[in-house]
Amino acid sequence: MEDHEEQEVEFWRKLDEEGISRSQMLKRSVAAAAGLTILSGPGAALAAGRMRGAAAPPLKGNSVPMSTMIANAKKEGGLNTIALPPDWANYGEIISTFEKKYGINISNSNPDGTSAEENQAIQSLKGDPRAPDVVDDGPAFAISGTAAGLFAKYFNTNFGTIPRAMKDTRGYWTGDYWGAISIGYNANLISTPPKTFADLLKSDYKGKVAMNGSPLTAGSAVAGVFAAALANGGSLNNVQPGIDFFAKLKSVGNWVPVDASPQTVASGQTPIVIDWDYLNLAYGPEFPSAKWKTVLPSDGVYGAYYCQAINATAPHPWSARLWEEFLYSDQGQLLWLKGYSHPARFTDLVRRNVVPKALITALPPASIYAKVKFANNGQQTAAKTLIADQWPAKMGA
Amino acid sequence: MSGRRRFSLAWLGTLPFFAYTLLFLFLPAGSVMLGAFKSVKGGWTTSNITMLFHQPYVLYYKTSIEVSLVTALLGAAIGLAIAYAAIRERTPRWIRSMLTTFSGVAANFGGIPLAFAFIATLGTIGVVTQFLKNQLGIDLYGNGTWSLFSTSGIEIVYLYFQLPLMILVIAPAIDGLKREWREAASNLGASSWQFWRHVGLPVLMPSIMGAVILLFGNAFAAYATAYSLGYQNLIPIAIGNYYSGNVLDNPHLAQAMALGMFAVLAVMMMLYIPLQRRAQRWAK
User: Fold this and answer.
1) B13 found inside a domain
2) pLDDT at B116 over 70
3) Looking at CA atoms only, how far is residue A135 from chain B in angstroms?
4) In-domain check, residue B70
5) pLDDT tens column, A92-106
6) What are A343's strand-pairing partners?
7) Number of structural domains, chain B?
8) Residue B283 pLDDT class (50, 70, 90 cuts)
9) Contact B149 A256 (CB under 8 A)
10) How many interchain CB pairs under 8 A, A with B?
11) Is B230 among the domain residues?
12) Which of A55, A60, A326, A371 is the most exposed, fewest CB within 10 Å of its CB?
């Protein structure tokens, strides 16, 4: 008799001793397997029942009193956010202020996630209590997410004062804050500060200039190409000069293909970084030893915004809407301004004189920001196609 | 006892394995193969596949294949030499065990830790770079041609895990190279080179070829190492950019690129099998 047959005989013999017959044994294991698979059922059913019991969330923020919204949101027991790094436009303080103000716990997953991952999380976690309630997407992904039916319509109380170009008029998404491309540099390592894109080609900066990733994968790098294009005779419709600028930067040896991050800024590996102004400006106080300074290049001022949207199948729909109310209230908008970004309602806030002077002076002069240009979706798509075609060959190796 | 049993439950033990293979190998591969032919608007298309034959995708495949071939062949050649040097009789036994232990660790030390270890040593402000520049006057990044983040830099980093993998894989084959053959050959007046050319290499060839294929596949699919070094021109990086980036958004094109990877590996296998059969003549 073979080994495994012996063991099988032994197994059944021992079972016999315990007084369980073979059919009883099989029945019990089937029952156990079935029980384990449906154990998760009641939990999910209870959760769904709890949600069905609450009132349907509103379409317009001003159609329910704030106290009702806060009460309903508190009953839901939490808020799920995704891809919000704490040091990105002051999200850390925004999250903690919201938590303290309303007593709602925020669970922020995948802080370094991408816009594509945010939309994918909505789809793959549908019906799961861990699904993200709100997302902060790049505009292209806000548009594609709307087309895919991922978002719910919602008009927050301050929807009217958001610039028309920065929102979806049907209510699926709203621009939350914008920034412009800036040049940040380490004053310890750089003796002559660069002020324009043209400056970056100087031989003093050999092996020192980096971007926040490659334009094939990072939105701020695409914006860097746009800004370089504007500075070199291109336009929003033609980013070829921008790509050529970076190819030239590489050929003179100034380009270093490292993804700039807080760590590379602190360590000095990327002494000059082309990145969003709110990121570069935040590095200054965050890393005092790096003596990080930021300038807006006067020859190419390009800006872009990110978009807030609410998951159509959000596990906490009231909390999601309360989050948007908070973000677009004066308090929320000023917190974004504190993070060195321009909140969507900036013009409205300035007009009503509610912006503290200190926040305005912390930013580069408004005269440069007045020159900022935004690309629309068509221009962005065309630019991305050109970059995807040419960047690997010109900048890859 | 055995005659009385009508129903053997032994085959039930294979169910977990087949379930696992089905769920984590066949279903994902199948969904990739189907997804490659879907279009973003829903509906079927072959445009994703035809796009692969144009730039920049041709560049991605070319660079991936080049990097994988170079590191596979170099890793195989150098690994074979090191393994043989450690295993032949005149070398003390402890060298072999130390080498295989280190290789076991190094072969799996890929990905993000490896990339950052290299950045910390050979990067623009790495320890070794600074030492060479300040103490020996050699500026690695001086004339702007070499960089850790260039193709040759990536190949050096990949070799770090390719070489030890080769050593691990070829050591048992070298054990099979009998000492008596070497002695007989030198008795008959053969030089070292003649021994290798007529006896040693032909015997080892099937194992060497299998190892080269393994190393090729290992480098071809490597993702985290290149990602951490910011190297863009490889297929796995491109798939990541199109599938889950912040800029490009074309998951079906990414699936088509993955299907292309299957195709490249299939071609390698088709080249390998007849060569393998030829090499195995000597094993008889």
Assistant:
1) no
2) yes
3) 13
4) yes
5) 999 999 999 999 999
6) A177
7) 1
8) low
9) yes
10) 106
11) yes
12) A55
CATH classification (class only), A179-303+373-395: alpha beta
Chain A residues with CB-CB distance to B55 below 8 A = 389, 393
- Residue B249 is nearest to which of A4, A140, A393, comparing CB atoms? A140
Residues 183-242 of chain B whose Cβ lies under 8 A from any Cβ of chain A: 230-233, 238, 240-241
Percent of chain B exceeding pLDDT 70 equals 96
Using pLDDT thresholds of 50, 70 and 90, give the confidence band for residue A388: very high
The predicted model gives B221-245 an average pLDDT of: 91
Nearest residue on chain B to A6, judged by CA atoms?
B2
Nearest-by-Cβ selection for B55 from A138, A216, A389:
A389
Domain of residue B72, residue span: 54-118+144-283
Q: Is B31 on the interface with A (CB under 8 A)?
A: no
Nearest CA in chain A to B63: A397
State mean pLDDT over B229-249: 90
B1: nearest CB among A9, A253, A391? A9
pLDDT of residue B6: 60
* Residue from B247, B250, B255, B257 to probe the interface with A (highest A Cβ count within 10 Å): B247
Specify the CATH number for the domain of residue B74.
1.10.3720.10
Per domain, the residue ranges of chain A are 61-178+305-364, 179-303+373-395
Tokens coding B207 = 């194992």
Q: Does B5 fall in a domain?
A: no
Residues B245 and A216 sit within 8 Å (Cβ to Cβ): yes
Closest CA to A266 of A287, A280, A281, A251: A287
Topology annotation, domain A61-178+305-364 = D-Maltodextrin-Binding Protein; domain 2 (3.40.190)
Residues 6+ apart with CB under 8 A from A100: none
Residue of B77, B86, B237, B224 lying closest to B157 (CA atoms): B224
